[in-house]
Design brief:
The chain is of the alpha/beta class. The chain has helices at 21-34, 64-73, 90-99, 130-144, 176-194, and strands at 4-10, 38-44, 76-84, 87-88, 118-125, 153-157. The chain starts with a strand and ends in an 8-residue tail after the last helix.
Length: 202
């Protein structure tokens, strides 16, 4: 079997090289996936001129088509987002809106192009809301055709009213770390099951 590849879309509001907790949890997922022979890369979305819209190309210098090419080349897509005001970050919502275009993009058998691809979610924040954010992102990804593995999300939230970010909190091997490893293992297993054995056409 050919090797599997994962792509993290980090939905931090901060451009590189600023520290980003969502990038950190995305890279930790890639590290965990590497234990299952999955290669990977990370794209921080705000480093690119991705336009608002719901098409595959909004024109006028829109850089989503280049990001989309990486999405379509990956076996596993990871959305890593911070929580702001109890919601997925605006960058995450922008990404989901752009992925909405995949509902109209079909292969030769009439299936969405992302059928057979697996999705994971990583969430970080300093307030409660990780389950809510995961649910929103899961629903959107599943709507356009991604498959979600069992326990397909990992998250960290700080103390209520706190000010410590995930990238400042120190290792969490027995909590977030364990969940990250489980999510990665299940995603790799599912991606291998779907690789070359896609869903049937409707």
């Amino acid at each position: 079997m050919s090797s599997l590849h994962a792509l993290v879309l980090s939905c931090s509001l901060k451009k590189s090289p600023a520290k980003s907790s969502s990038e950190l949890i995305g890279r930790q997922l890639l590290t965990a996936l590497a234990d299952h022979d999955v290669t990977g890369e990370l794209v921080r979305v705000v480093d690119h001129d991705v336009r608002f819209g719901v098409s595959v190309d909004e024109g006028d210098g829109d850089e989503w088509p280049a990001v989309r090419k990486k999405v379509l080349a990956a076996d596993i897509l990871i959305i890593a987002t911070p929580i702001w005001m109890g919601q997925p970050a605006s960058v995450c919502k922008l990404v989901l809106e752009r992925l909405d275009a995949e509902l109209s993009e079909k292969d030769a058998e009439g299936r969405p192009l992302v059928y057979g691809k697996v999705a994971l979610v990583g969430v970080v924040g300093n307030e409660d809301g990780a389950h809510h954010v995961t649910a929103e992102v899961f629903q959107a990804l599943n709507d356009v055709g991604f498959t979600l593995p069992a326990a397909g999300a990992t998250y960290w939230v700080g103390e209520a009213m706190g000010s410590v970010d995930y990238n400042e909190s120190g290792p969490k091997p027995d909590t977030t770390g364990t969940t990250t490893k489980t999510a990665a293992a299940n995603a790799a297993h599912l991606a291998r099951a779907l690789h070359g054995n896609n869903y049937p056409a409707s």
